[in-house]
Amino acid sequence: MAEAHQAVAFQFTVTPDGIDLQLCHEALRQIYLSGLHSWKKRFIRFKNGIMTGVYPGSPTGLFIVLVGYMSSTKYALMDPTLGLTAKLGAHIPISRYMSEESQQLVGGVLVGTGLWVTIIFIMRNALKCLLSWHGWMHARHGQVSWKTRFWMLFVKLFSGRKPMLYSFQNSLPRLPLPPVKDTTRRYLESARPLMDDVEFKRMAALAEDFEKTLGPKLQWYLKLKSWWASNYVSDWWEEYIYLRGRGPIMVNSNYYAMDFLYVFPTSLQAARAGNAIHAIMLYRRKLDRAQIKPLMLQNTIPMCSAQYERMFNSSRIPGVDTDTIQHMNDSKHIVVYHKGRYFKVWMFYDGRLLLPREIEQQMERILADKSEPRAGEETLAALTAGDRVPWANARKSYFSNGKNRQSLDAVEKAAFFVTLDDTEQRFEEHNPVQSLDSYAKSLLHGKCYDRWFDKSFNLIVFKNGTMGLNAEHSWADAPIIGHLWEHVLSMDPIKLGYTERLQWDLPTECQSTIESCLKVAKALADDVDSHIFPFHNFGKGLIKKCKTSPDAFIQIALQLAHFRDKGNFCLTYEASMTRLFREGRTETVRSCTVEDLRVRPLHDEREHEREQNEAGRASTAHLFCLYVVSKYLGVDSPFLKEVLSEPWRLSTSQTPVQQLELFDLVKHPEYVTSGGGFGPVADDGYGVSYIILGENLINFHISSKLSSPETDSHRFGSNIKQAMLDILDLFQLNNIAKK
């Protein structure tokens, strides 16, 4: 191998005249650059740790406090230590080694530093107290009270200047633990429209019995955890909701993000991949240096940034009973899949990140490679698409040593995974429905073996230059990967070698396991009924004129559409972020409430919005944690068992646009993204994702299962469109929304 010579830093030969050393300067140079890169990252992380640890203080603030304090005490002829140095002198013979002036200087520095630390402590705790108030959430849409204005002013005052990504972590409040009685009341309010009188009376009796008997005992353990842990939900949510699931994560858990809807920067696959990979690596560098601005609601209220930590260099590792997440501090390569082969591509040369055109050349060489995949290699990634137990057993049996171990390490320890897809996908104006549906299905599951579904995310670049993402769900929620994707799309059209092929040796038994997993995955993928459509009739601009929240408007439209589609209401899931709290992820908004029954006569939406904020949040996470405690204690609760076994036949989520400054959709309306989506949660239900773009466009992503006689994604899409128009008619503004 050509690279074997470069791997030897020096050689020596023994001659009659002695030992002749032959140093390889290039190898030593690369070792030096690698060490320099590593130490730079360590220093940056150390510095960022210090800056985050003292925030909202700063070294400049320390200097100002020291100079100000010592100057004032000097001119006032005061002892800056307030007699502390003299007291220490009685016990420690420092006077022998320091003059009185030096003692005053050292004492001033110590007291000034203590004063600086005290100021930081006060500001941080004041900010934590301020952020614990959430009264601003309950105001009517578009209205801000004076109380909220003053509160926001104080939040800005105590937030400091130029925060880094993790600056607010120590100032965020902990997720509050609600009383059991409040949680059961909210649950019953959300369940009332889905039950008849007899069924509701039975459930209310179960809830009352739970409140009086088992509930307080379980709550005591949860309260203990809430005092000890940063967040009483997140670790259990990650483990039991995601990592302990033994079914396929493809379709059932992983989700996708799409490219621009109308703009196609290039039809060259390698060029598009070069730009995208370079932009992603730049984002990783910003993330490593904590230079990404923390997300702030209304440019004031900080949100938790903990989920960013495992975006790169991470992979889900299968286990028999539970999976784990493996995260590396650094990775200098990516892995690229093309036509059944896996390639390890280094991202750095001479200590610098490869430029887009250099990465493009690497991709071109991969595309030009005509080598054939080895037996079983082409469909190898089907192991990550099927059930988790067969994959865990196969990993232990066939990937624990030799070539397979090395190649698997390269995949799992890569910064991220790239697929150079050999199909063409994009939005076509002459065939909008079928083209978008095909595009979504390709991103969601592809061929079931051409994405490594265990990686934190896969970048998929199609043959015609269109691209997208497929992301694993356990390590973080969709807004985190959405933040990265906005960065990539904003850089690609405006701003902006081939290396060793991985070797696999797959025995016949392992190939049989791969085929079995592929069969399970294909059956799941072929059953997905996906429908994506842009809703052009009106957008948030017109909805705001109705004095209502765009999200509430869409949610009530989904309820009306579902009622028309199936003739009934159902348990509805809407994802809601809890990142206002430390290490928060999501909570469930049960958006089908008693007020939603009024969609049949299409009643006042504004009343729905107000009451939804109060009653819709059923504290599903609290009930889930109570259930986990009950399992640890070995006790059964009929109430919790029944509540948590109810199927979510309508699962909904809004994809937020977080970095509005990156896209000027007024001047460039063509740069709208298609958003992203996910698979259905229930076999007879719908999954609906939507993204609100600019003032006049809402993109909907609908999924269901073809095997269910009760669902049809295209039919439901038509019902959503008509429901949006019908609800608008209530406000007598439909003349503004004429096509």
TrEMBL record:
Alphabetical list of PROSITE patterns matching this protein: ACYLTRANSF_C_2 (PS00440)
GO biological process, one term: carnitine metabolic process
GO molecular function, a single term: carnitine O-palmitoyltransferase activity
Coiled coil start-end: none
Pfam families: Carn_acyltransf, CPT_N
Segments passing through the bilayer: 50-70, 105-127
Involved pathway(s): Lipid metabolism; fatty acid beta-oxidation
Domain Choline/carnitine acyltransferase: 175-722
Top-level taxon of the source organism: Eukaryota
Cellular component terms per the entry's GO annotation: mitochondrial outer membrane
Catalytic activity annotation: (R)-carnitine + hexadecanoyl-CoA = O-hexadecanoyl-(R)-carnitine + CoA
Family statement: Belongs to the carnitine/choline acetyltransferase family.
Listed name of the protein: carnitine O-palmitoyltransferase
